[in-house]
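Loading example: each entry is read as two labelled lines plus one structure line.
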Amino acid sequence: MKAALTLRPRDRSAILQSLRAGVVPRHGHRHIQVGRHQELEALVHDIDRVADAGSAIRFVIGPFGSGKTFFLSLVRAVGLQKKLVTVHADMAPDRRLFSTGGQARLLYAELMRNMATRSRPDGDALAAVVERFASSALGEARQRGVEAPVVIQERLESLSEMVGGYDFAHVIGAYWQAHDSGDGQLQTQAIRWLRGEFSTRTDARKALGVRTIVDDHNVYDQLKLMARFVRLAGYGGLFVCLDELINLYKLSNKRARDSNFEQILRILNDCLQGSAEGLGFVFGGTPEFLTDTRRGLYSYQALQSRLAENSFASDELVDLSGPVLRLANLMPEDIFVLLGKLRNVYASDDPDQHLIPDEGLSAFMEHCSRRIGDRYFRTPRNTIKEFVNLLAVLEQNPSADWRDLLPNVRVEEEGNPDLAPLPEDSEASEAPRSPEQASATSAAAETESLAEQDEAPADDDEDLASFRL
Amino acid sequence: MVDDSRSTAFELLDERVRQWIWDAGWTELRDIQEAAIRSLIPPRSDVIIAAATAAGKTEAAFLPICSHLVSQQDVREGVQVLYVSPLKALINDQYRRLSDLCEPLEIPVHRWHGDVPSSRKRKMLQAPAGILLITPESLEALFVVRGHSMGRLFARLGWVVIDELHAFMGTDRGRQLQSLLHRIELRARRRIPRVGLSATLGDLSLAARYLRPQRTPSNDAQRVETIVSSGRSQELLLQIRGYLTPAAQPTAEPAASSDAEEIVDHLFETLRGEDHLVFANSRSHVEHYADLLRRRSQRERLPNEFFPHHGNLSRDLREEVESRLKDQVAPTTALCTSTLELGIDIGCVTSIGQIGAPFSVSSLRQRLGRSGRRDDPATLRVYISEPELTAKSHPLDGLRIRLVQAIAMVELLIERWCEPPSTHALHLSALVQQVLSLCAEHGGVTAQEAWRALARPGPFDSVSQDQFIHLLRAMGAEDLLIQSEDGTLLAGDKGERIVNHYSFYTIFQTPEEYQVLHQGRPLGTLTYEHLLAEGMHIIFAGRRWRIAMIDPEQKSVSVEPSPAGRIPTFLGSSGGQIHDRIRTRMRTIWADGNVPRYLDYRAKKLLAEGRANFVRLGLEASPLVASGSGTIAFLSRGDVIRNTIALQLLKRGLQVAQEGPALLLDGITPGETRKILAELAEEGPAEPLELAALAGNKQVGKYDWVLDQELLNAEYAAAAVDPRAAHRALCELARHLA
């Protein structure tokens, strides 16, 4: 099976660039996918159901570093292949499903910004989707031998009957008219409305003559409208991926958490009862987000009873038919396979070009383990990033030996950039560098993260890094 | 030459600002304004501007800042200047003054505190720009409620101006403010120049270190520029008046004691017809004297000119008094607490009264700054009551400690000395609050992030990492914090309840308060600890009332006027600690023969009496005096040293009580005491944590209840004892006794 995969140069550079930046690549997931065949199959099944005018919902639950984000990204790529429109976003303190301070509208706007189709896999596809709606209506009109406005009207009526659909249809109508009359300004305003970029009703009324906007209280209704709309435009359906749901768990106000969980309950009910059409949801979160009865989904009684997992499925036995899909943690063996795959991608699938032997992979893992303990495989993002960096240096410096470079690999844990000390302040707290040290770093600037003088973190920092209450 | 440099400073200002100065009819800029313009244009470093109240500090900071703002062509959104002030009333004052300056310049000015309507706040949030006037508590609320938009709000921030800088130093609230300013810089991802406006109090290098805390003390002097007003050397008219409290005092009605009546007589006869401030050391004293003076006016059928002013009174009542003081028509004397120490705009008053010995020289200095217009002398009258001596009197009463303390303070005031703020405390209570606030701001933080954001490098850098970890655990034990699997610390159930309640934002204690209503009109607040009951009589807002109804649901007390009354005891505004320099000066005064000219006849008599008793007790030769079955150790040292020695004695199993300048030891002779003190001197400095472990109630700060014994001891050891200074004092004492 593996032999069937050919690595295109485009995929190779996309994978390597993304991984060095610490993000999940948009293309070529399968080249670095490790295991999880059953789980992926379950999701492919979901996608087929959505494409078949059905609905689906999954909670992908796994501990930190289990590869949820990667998995979601992979699933999204499959969705695109199956002619779905996908939208995705990470939950954040200022991006929620429901709120009163604009945070839900920001989530919606983020989803729309990330809208992708097979021909526009990198996002920002909303305008193209709307355009396709118009052109497909024209096509249908020609086919049926009727005026285009008649077809448009029929389609808009099907939107109008839904909650909040009147204004949605009005905006699409406005776009169509502007399309007809060449009013670029009005077209832009219509797209802005669909993207959730209007923050006040007054502005929207002035620009488009509608009384409502996408706001904090109707995000889910708008997504349902969008699902029907993309189907009218000729796509299979809408696939919504929401990651980092732990951020809902982290909200410091019970009311705020509950109002978001209530929206999740609505979505769950709709999807399980099949009352949503051509709409699928995948949520990514950690086990505590799901099961913590104080602030997780289980703290919301109605969700707990619906999401309670099959008690027969445990340890070895799996049940992939329920809404909750568990991802186990990556184990060191998985990391080893993954590093091997990365080496292979780097060598463009040619074993003769491998930059580091198997022995080097083990040594790399051992080094990481010494630096930060088992956190290296529990938070694989940085481990992978440093490995790719190491390969980059080896590639560009054929004379270099991996054994010499390895001690300089510095795996760091990621932190909140808003909380990092200011450069001015950290200068004051560090001993001044000697000129030799300074020049040594500038000479090796190209391979900075590796060559930088490696000062072992002080023991007291270790106490904080591994702090448990 | 002078003219040349003057004109250059003026020329540095934008034309529109110069226009404003011309329009305002100013003939010249004051020295601090000249200097500030040169330091702040262009903005480069942190600056402290120190001058007396009403010396034009606000303009010194804002003329150049506004000049810079109008010359900028920046249209990005975001607050450009953050002005932080300790008092809402001060913000309202400054709002008026700055609006006057900024309106023609088209710079928006916003005020933001508990009494500002939320519609105004929303407007500011929609289009943040210009100058934002705010209290530390409202700034805290912004972090908690709008944590995620702080970056956007302050992306463009160019300056932070802190008014009444000296009022923040050395307090939990001051540490909270430092932390908030540090957190703003973290969100803006750069240092933001700070401008501190301060009274001219003592050593400004401490103020500089407060304004911009540095881990490397070597270069902070250069980093913060200080501009000190050359100031006017104002003449000081001074009197200390002595009174005698009768020994057999009717306990039921303290209001009738004859010394109070005499003080009232003097106040009434001297102060009527002009504006004055009379400071008393507690809110109950304020109420007490206001009531006596009002009744006195009534008896004489004269319009009342005496009004109380303190933090428990409603804003309306306080503003009424402030505006009466400000206008030139109705002569007004405000009986007040430290609330009128700070720079609320009430204009200048003719004189200052002080009932009872003041707590500190710095607050006395602040109070005095209120008196006397530019070229008039400042006038201060201090009223001191000493108990009448009888056979049963305690030996210490004969020393006239209060009077001698007042004299020492006045002397130090004249010598331009004042207490440096205490900088040793760890402020763990404020750290508990800041950890919770940081969690709310970021939706959780890791221990390491919190440590780096708050402690190293950060405002809590006197806290060790062990203590920090210990504190997090203590917070976890109280369910203030929980930890998610990725290590993120989040507010626990109890923590969440605390953070989401508005009382979270203040770090100083705010006891549950009841609103006092008369016919529906709010008069102010009383705390529940006052033990109120229906039908009880109270004195409040300078009048006597009967409590008609208490509504625990609404937390309100309805009152009706009544002829009788007793004074509620108010919490808060405790004295603080007496500095060593004052106590050692007091010793000199006792030993000395000089009689200050500013004492009235009775004060002179009391001083002579005090000195006679000092000699009679043999205190000149030895501070140890036998008293009953025990010994009085008359150390006459500061509270911290006295406290340290007391704990050292306690550790040796002695029974010790602390009384003003002295220690009272039970069941031990002066000879034995001398031996023990000599041994202590021999032993060397004590271990501060061991002493702290012996101390009694150590919960002082708002969140001290979260801390376990170990942390409480650490806090106490850092702030309340000073073994090295105590050891020096003991050695001196041992030499003296030998």
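Chain A touches chain B through 40 residues (CB under 8 Å).
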